[in-house]
Amino acid sequence: MKIEYATTFLPAIEEELRQAILLSNSPNLEEYRNMLAYHLGWEGEGAGPEARGKRVRPIIVLLTCAAAGGEWQHALPAAAAVELVHNFSLIHDDIQDNSPLRRGRPTVWKQWGVAQAINAGDAMFALAHLSLLRLEETSLPGIAIQASRILQLACLHLTEGQFLDLAYEAHGDLSLEAYWQMVGGKTAALLAACTELGALVARASDSHREAFRQFGFSLGMAFQAQDDLLGIWGNAALTGKSAESDLLSGKKSLPVLYGLTQNGAFAKRWTQGPVNPGEIQSLATQLEAEGGLAYTQAAASRMTDQAIQALAEAQPLGEEGQALIALADQLLGRQG
Amino acid sequence: MKIEYATTFLPAIEEELRQAILLSNSPNLEEYRNMLAYHLGWEGEGAGPEARGKRVRPIIVLLTCAAAGGEWQHALPAAAAVELVHNFSLIHDDIQDNSPLRRGRPTVWKQWGVAQAINAGDAMFALAHLSLLRLEETSLPGIAIQASRILQLACLHLTEGQFLDLAYEAHGDLSLEAYWQMVGGKTAALLAACTELGALVARASDSHREAFRQFGFSLGMAFQAQDDLLGIWGNAALTGKSAESDLLSGKKSLPVLYGLTQNGAFAKRWTQGPVNPGEIQSLATQLEAEGGLAYTQAAASRMTDQAIQALAEAQPLGEEGQALIALADQLLGRQG
After folding, report:
1. ipTM tops the 0.90 cut
2. From A53, B61, B129, B148, which residue has the greatest number of CB atoms within 10 Å?
3. Cross-chain residue pair B32–A163, CB shorter than 8 Å
4. How far apart are CA B195 and CA B313, in angstroms?
């Protein structure tokens, strides 16, 4: 992504997020707002850009809006809303996964307890949708209600994906079909909402809006397949940093799920219990021999092609269109 | 409430709720929908009317719509939405309070674990707002977006009230002012949304809609003050069923908070630790002597008067208007 988008967009996004949090402005709620500000990386120990994450989703909303011929400023309420939805889901994910750290800092539940953290997530969920309604001020009548439906459907799909993820951890019987459904809900649905919302605010034609939506969705799917591949065959996973291997953490990612369907030596070893650091290289080789790498590469490649084709159909305009293509390349590891 | 409203409204509400849940219709999600259907009292052991609760909130939406001159059927999406919001908050409350039972049945977290229960609540939150958007089909353009803002603000206030409740349990330093704010968020805000949404769908004038909103809000406040009073001086609390006394459970209700501000014998005993069943009658008498009963009675009476005055200003129409008055009397224990 070109540096100018970071310097133009990011301060505008942060300001819009701050306005959203201030929608809760009653007295006696300083600590309540502190929790939200802490999670968003503005306050508390370790606050700063590192603690905020990359704000990829709101940037995609704004780039899409501009690339679809709109004024990116008009899409700021939607950009803030998707970032708040993303962060609501992170706060709840951290409780569900029992994760003590997020972006190098203690998670909200670690700092304030599970009960308050559940509530902080709920608060961010409500604030996300209130933020979105500010589209009434920046857009034509009828846009805000369409945007609301797009975002709420993405939230519903998030919870569907999360259900599958949690059920899978508990029972371990996820099919390849259910894996794609899970990734579609957990990762791709919100990215699809980002690009669709940007195009909606820009008043793109129905076909262009659908192409932008499809681009966001396929981008999310391709990103996850790519991420699963690197989790086993990436440099960090295969070499010294063995702790980064999905084989060690036991994560049932796409290659592993494929390997299990083959009922070969890989499946036999995997079902025997936790993998040791010393076994990682040989097990990765075994999984590759049984087709796990090729299957995942083919899937990532197919999803990437779909994303690129959808983006071409969307006919993104100008510098922002170029930036959107560059961002997609970056997320899919296609640079350099 | 007259029996005809139960027989007309309740089946329509249940049907609208079922349609809302079916908005999640992807495959592989049977268990996900089972969780929601279980909590709503439709499925699983003990399913039935008892497990569903009284559906007071959606009934208030429909009665208000009719009493404001509208067609109650048009308000069904809003009625389902408030009931889903209420139940989303119950699912999360039960986790936060570590409650094993709800309406005599194991809570969602007891049945499916905390992680899935957090997610089931989130799902119900998203479904509530998707259900609300069906107002686009039953109402004029522009109504759904106004309704969305009303409901999301109520959700925000719910989380503000819940924050104060949880913070109060943890630190115990709630002021009387913060108590009213907590009740305003946890109980009154959603009731205010019920009556405002009913009036909105009926296209009531701004002043009537505001009066209906105020009625719902004051009704919630009065109900809570009344409930707090009965929790110490009600028959069940004072006599044999001592387990029902808020003095025994240690709940810092309105009379207790008032008593603590008096720094008298009551406050001295209360701060020494848990109360025994044998002390309940004498401690209730002490709190009464220090003004706790009179203060709470005055508050309940003031809020009840406000509710009745607001309802009079709203000029409710017809049989449904009478039913709304009767329902308010019933909730405030003013019958017989």
Report:
1. yes
2. B61
3. yes
4. 13
